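Justification of resources, computational component.

The compute hours requested in this renewal are based largely on the per-chain cost of generating structure records like the one below. Each record pairs the submitted sequence with a full structure-token output. That output is archived, and it is also reused by downstream analysis tasks.
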Amino acid sequence: MRKESYKSRRWWRDIRGVFGRPGRRIPSRLRESAFTLIELLVVIAIIALLMGILLPSLSRARQQARKIACLSNLRQMGIALETYLPDAEYRLPPSSCHIQDPNDHWLYVLARYTREQLLFRCPSDLGKEFVDWNRPLTEQKEARYSSFAVNALLDPIHYRYGARSNRYNCVNNIRRPMACIWISEAPDTESFRLADHIHPESWEGSAEYAKQFIAWDRHKGTSHYLFADGHAEGLKFEQTYDYPGTCNWYPEAAPKWPENP
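The structure output for this chain reads:
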């Protein structure tokens, strides 16, 4: 201990002597242990190089984590849906077009059928203001319901299928539930303030027009979809809507196009 203390005092005395007396030569043992300017620049260059290599990888990792969280959210919705359907005679919960009480909203309905907390916001969604379900919805006209929207063709009533109850609101009447999309990711635009459903019948076979209503590029060229049977997938939009080939949006025909789209 005394030896170490002696060395420390001696080193500090040398440093103090250098800075306390202008022109004083730096002891050789200090010169040998100090960085030269070239060495310091090399270290900085190596650190900058490592950061340039690692930062893109970290960014991709964050994007992948957000993508996984979003897909996990939809899968939780799918599990809740499978639990809910037997209690509801296999009819899907309604969008905001067909409710008066916010407690009947499909988001709230699904939340009651899962032990996990449903996170209605995708981590990659850039929207700022979302609905506070503890306040009246009429007071929140600038907010958004969630990062997701339901397919209006599967609502309890839809004019395409007549003025009466929509038979395709019942999962058992859908041609192939595993091929029919019920929930998609909604874009974070002003048009989706207090909007929670989309109308594929208005797209008229145009994928470019349809993309205005889907967050089709939220996850590096893909988006997440929940199908009527309760399973979720990450897909390119063209894999779900490509006239006259594949169409996963019309319950009477999916995965094909109906005779009168």
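Helices lie at 2-20, 28-33, 37-84, 106-111, 207-210. The two ends are 88 Å apart (CA to CA).
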